[in-house]
Amino acid sequence: MTTSGAHQDAAGTGSAARSWWWWGRRRSVALDVSLAVVSALECAFEGIGFAGKASLPVPVGVLFGLVVGSVLLLRRKWPITVVLVSIAVTPAEMGFLMGMVGLYSLAASEVPRRFTAVLAGMSTVAVYIVTVARMRSDVAHADVGEPDFDPSGWYVPVMSLFLTLGLNAPPLLLGLYIGARRRLMESLRERADSLEQELSLLADRAEQRAQWARQEERTRIAREMHDVVAHRVSLMVVHAAALQAVALKDPQKAVRNAALVGDMGRQALTELREMLGVLREPAVPGGEVSARVPAVPLAAVGRAAAAAAEAAADGGPSLDALEALVEQSRQAGAVVEFVVVGEVRGYGPEVERTAYRVVQEALTNVHKHAAGAEVVVRLAHRAAEVAMQVENGPSDASAAAADLPSGGNGLVGMRERVTRLGGVFVSGPTDAGGFKVSAVLPVTVVVPVVDADGDAEAEAEGGAARSASA
After folding, report:
1. pTM of the full structure
2. Overall number of domains in the chain
3. pLDDT recorded at residue 289
């Protein structure tokens, strides 16, 4: 198998650790050296006859043949040189092996096809001329024995043509086939490497998206746990403190506070069961988990967290429960005013759930950090959005603090909820010394998702279509 220049062989080992000059492998060196030795011996033997015809000393003819035949050693690096040398020594009737191997090497190499065609034509013409001259000479000295047969007419040219084509055509065609096959194999190998790299990139991207989806789901679960536990437990602590204060003075009020603590605990457990029940649902209908994970579009990975959130949102808290939420804070001793502006209507489950959680967390922060403060809860229904605001005044110095721990995740969780739906969230202290939390949610929810190419897009869902009336 031959190739040109630094062209690698079919096994792709041209960059082996051990250098063999322009050869890729050790067996390539052995093959070329063997061919060069055979060619040198052939040319040396033919050099004896050449020396006699040219009136040269025999050693000179033998030495000339050895040098000419050794040129075949360069067939992989300089195939054009080998063919030109074989053409040059064709009139001396030597180098036939070198000519055939040179044509094969030239055709199998990366030399442009026009050069290959020109050199092959020159070699064919040279061999044909020499063959015709040799056959005419043999016929002239031969005794044909048949007076009606004249070989000097059509016989010599036709037979010379057949001999020439028999010497040059097979190695040329074989070289063209081997060269085309090698280029095809290299093209397929490069394509396979490219596909392997693309598959590796797609696998890495899918893993990143799966990791993102898992992280998003963990964040959502942590946010839900925080909202449910923090609010209910905060009210329970407030009621427990009040129960401790009035247990001896007013047993009836203590009984009511104890009942409220029990109700809130049961409500907290109910909400936790509903949320964790979604996680316990089987992935495959019928409760069977498939051993083989089906292939899904990469775009579905980015929507996994959103789909899980929507599944958990069904049957969750809504804006209708805000009145009861405010009443629980009143029963805990807080002064809370609830104001509703605009025409009351239903929204998508996720919108109502987010609005409820924002008000819930804001009231929880009031119980934690502003004991005894007056609170105003405002809910505004607008044309294309719903807004909520929870504002409290300064805390009452005479009120006993609940001494509740704070992890600092309440405002962060509220902001994440609102911005995920394409809304606006603002919080901060007021001039009167209190604190205000405001959020605006669009009726048309805009949820960022990730498409198959990894680019961020926006997926709109009509809030009206997802409302309770629909």
Report:
1. 0.46
2. 2
3. 40
